[in-house]
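Quick sanity check, DUF323 domain-containing protein:
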Amino acid sequence: MTSTYSSTMTPTIIDLRQSFTHDAKRQKIDQDAYPSPPHCAGANTSTAASDVDVLPLDLVLENPEAAWDSADSDSPDDMTDVTSLTDEAHLHDEHHNFHHRDSTSSSSSGSSNNNTMEQESSEIATEEPSSSEGFDLPKMILSSLKPAVEGTPKTIPTMVLYDDYGLQLFDQITYLQEYYLTQEEIEILERDADKIVDHIPDNSVVVELGAGSLRKTVLLLNALERKRKNIRYYALDLMLDELTKSLKSLGQFANVKTAGLWGTYDQGLAFVSSFGSEVPKTLLWLGSSIGNYTREEAQDFLASYRKSLNVGDNWIIGVDRRNDAQEITVAYNDPKGVTRDFIMNGLDHINVLLGQDFIDRQKFRYFAQYNVEVGRHEAYYQVKEAHELVYTTPSTGEEVRIALAQDELINVEYSYKWSLQESTQLFEDTEMTKVGQWTSSSNRYDLHLVQKTPFYFKTPVADKPLPSQDEWTELWKSWDLVTMIMIQHPTMLLEKPIALRHPFLFYLGHIPTFLDIQLSRVLKEPFTEPSYFSVIFERGIDPDVEDPTQCHSHSEVPDSWPEIESIIAFRDRVRERLFKVLNDPVAYPMTRRLARIVFMAFEHEAMHLETIIYMLAQSPNTAPPPSIPAPWAVRKSAADGTSSSEAPLLPSTVSPATWFSINPAQLNKDIISLGHNDLESDDLTDAHNEDLTTAFGWDNEHPLVTSRPLPSTFEIQSRQVTNSEFLGYLKSVGVTGKSLQGNEKTPASWLIQDGGEVFVKSVYGPVPLEVSGVWPVSCSNIQAIGYAAWLSNQQGSTYTLPTEHELSIAFKLRQATVPKTGLETYGFRQWYPTLDHQSLSTASSNPFHFSGPGGLWDWTSTTFAPLDKEGFKTSTLYPGYSTDFFDEKHMVVLGASWATHPRIAERRSFRNWYQANYPFVFAGFRLVRRA
C-alpha cells in the first residue's frame, strides 16, 4: 500500500509549555482525543510559524475533537509517496536535547550544567533562548565560563551550536560518510521496520522524544501504515519552527494520525502520563540521544519515564556502541572540517546571544578526543593564547571578567557511547524488559525495544545468595498475577487441567504453608493460623504416570478445600511474617541456616510458579496475562487485505540447526565439573554459621564432582527442535491429520482441531503453527527419543539426547563465552517459548552460538540419581525433595524455560527432573552425535 501526504497540510501542535506541567492538575486524555481541524474558539495561531495551528493543552483536554490533523487539501495534485521523503528530507533529525534537559534539570537528570550532549540527538534551538520557557541561555553561558566553585573546569552549553548556520552545518554532518550513526540507524529501519512495529499494538499512541526532522521516523510510520495500524503519533520538540517544518515534510497518512507537542522532555513526560491505562503507548528515542546523558543521568531519565508508562508500554531506543576509537574520532572530526566549522560557529553565536563582541574565535581552536576509558567523545574549545573575556552587563554597565590560560580546554559537548553489556545493564537497573534488539550490519549501532512489564526479575548477584525483600516483592507480584488474575475465580479454582496434579486451589495454599512450616521449624515458633493448613497443604502429589495409584508420600487430601478467602488471608500473614524476619536482625539474626530456609522457600515458590503456568497452558479457561499482548495478536492483516481465513498460511519454519563440536578434554575444570559444594550440615558449624556469600544449592547438587570420566568429543545442535520439525517427523511416520488426536507420539502441548489442524497451547490460548511452528516443541522424553530414532534412520547417522554431563558442559561453555544481552528467553521476558535467535545474532563475532538456556528446558538421556553416591547427603530440611525421585523413572532436565526465574536459570548446578513419559512440562530437546 502506498502512503501519501499533502504538502499543504497544516500541522496541529499542542502547546505543553505553560498549560501542562508536573505540578498542574491533569485530567486523563480520552482514548479518542485525536486532533481534528481546530477551527474553534481559543485556538492560538499567533506563532512564529505562519501556517500552523497551535492549541493550548487545556483546550485539547476540554475538547478532544479540537486537536487533530487539519489538512487544508487532499487534492490529487498534492499527493506524493511518503517513502520518497527518506532521501528528500530537507532537515536533519540528529538534533540536540540540551535545552530540554538543562531547562528541567532539577526534575529530570539532577544536573544543572552538564555538557553531556550528543550530536546525534534530536532537538535543536532555532529561536533566541529567552523565547523558550524555563532557562536563560546568556546567563547559562556566563555561569558556565565562570563557575561558582573555584577550580571547576569551564564549559559552554551545547545549545550555542544551534543557530541557523549551525543547523545547516549539522545537517551536512549527518550526510558525511564518516558520521556513521545516522546511516546505521537508517539501515536498521529500512531492513527491520516491519518487525519492529509488529510489537506496537493497534490503536496505540506513539510519542517521539526530540523529534527533529523525522527523516528516520517516517520509515517506522510507513511500516505502521503498511500494517494498517491505527496510530496516534506525537512529535515532541521544544522549537516550534522546526517542529512545524518537520510535520509538514512528513505529510498525512490514511491510518497514522500526526500532531506535534511543543514543550520540554519533562512536559512531554507529563503528557504521556495523562493517557489512561487502556491506551497502549510506545516512546521513540532515536539518534542515540541517550548519549546526551552520563550513565547515572541516563538511568535517572529512563527511571522517570518508566513511571509514566503502563504495563505493556514500549520504548524504542537508539544506542551507539563503544566502537573503534579511531572510527568515533573521525566521526566527530571529519577530514572536510565540517564538524570543526560546526563547533567553531558556536563561538560566533555566543556573541549574537550576548549582543556584544565577547569572544574572538580566532583565539580558539577545535579540540576533540575519544576517551576510551570513560566511553565518551569529548569536544572542546582550546585556548590558543592566554587572554581575558570581558562581558558588560547592559543594565548596569558592570563588567564580568573571565581569565583564560593558554591551552586551557573548555568543554562544549560530551557524547557517551554504550557497550552492549552497559546498555543491557542499564535496562536491568531501570527494570525495563528488553523484548527486541536490531543491530546494524557493522555491529556498531543498536535499536533496543524495551517494555514495562508487570514484574521484573533481576539477575541474581553471585555473592548474595539470600533473596532480598525486593526480589520477594517481584516474585509475589508474578505469583499474584498468575493465581489471582489468570486463574479466574471462582470457576477455575477447583479445576484440574492435568489429572495427575491437584486443583489450582491447592497451590495457593501450598506455597505459603511451605514457607511457614520451614520458618517455624528453624525459628522454633508456632505455625501461623490456621495451623491445620500444615496438614493439608504441606506437600503435593507427583504420581506415577503409568499407574497414578502409586505416589510418594504427600499431605492428606481433604474432603473439601478451605475457602479461597481464608487461604489468601493466610498467605498475607505468612508474607508479613517473612518480612518481619528479614527486617529485624536483632530478633532474627540472619544465620546461614535461616538464610537457607529463605532461599529454599524462594526457589520453591519460583518452581511452583512455573508448574502452575504449564497447568494453565493446558486449560481452555485461562485468562491471558493482563496488558501483555501476544506479539502475533497485535499484527493486522497484510496490506493487500489477505487474511488467514482467505488464504491458509503454512507453518512457520526456521533455518536448520547448526552443529557445534565440543571436546571436553580441552576445557577447564569449572566447565567440565558437575554440581557444587554446599552441605546443609555445615550451616551449623562455627566456620559457616555466618556465611551469607557462598551459593546455596539443593541436596542433589552436592557435592562438586570433578573426577568423573569426561565425555568424548561430541557435536550438539545449536538449538532445540521446533514444532514444525516435529510435525515433519510425525507426517513421515504416518501420523497426520485426525490421526494426531490421541496418538502417543503427539505432544500434549498441541491442540488438534477436528480437521487435524495443529495448534500449540499457550497462556494466550491455541496458537496456529503459522506463528508457533518456529517455537521449540514441548514434549516428553520418550517422544523426543522417538524423533531422534527417526532422524537417525532418515540420515544414516546416530542421534541421541545429550547426557547430563554433555549438556551441562555446553551450557557452561555458552555462559562463559557469550555475554548477556537482556534477550535471554527465561524469566518471563516473554510469555511463550521462543528460540533466542536475536541474542545469537548480536554475538555474531563469537564462535560459539549455542542457544539457551531458555525457551524450554532440555531433556537429557541421564536418569535422575545422585551425582556422587558417596558424597550425597539427603536434605534434613526437606528429606523427600530429591530422594523420592531416585526411582529410575525420572530423567534429568537442564537449562530453563521462559517461565523459569533467573535465580534458577542462571545457576548451572541446578538439576531438574521429570518422569520420562510426563508430557506436560515445559521441556524440549536438542540432539547430539558423537565421534
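Posting the structure with no commentary besides this: The chain is about 30% helix and 15% strand.
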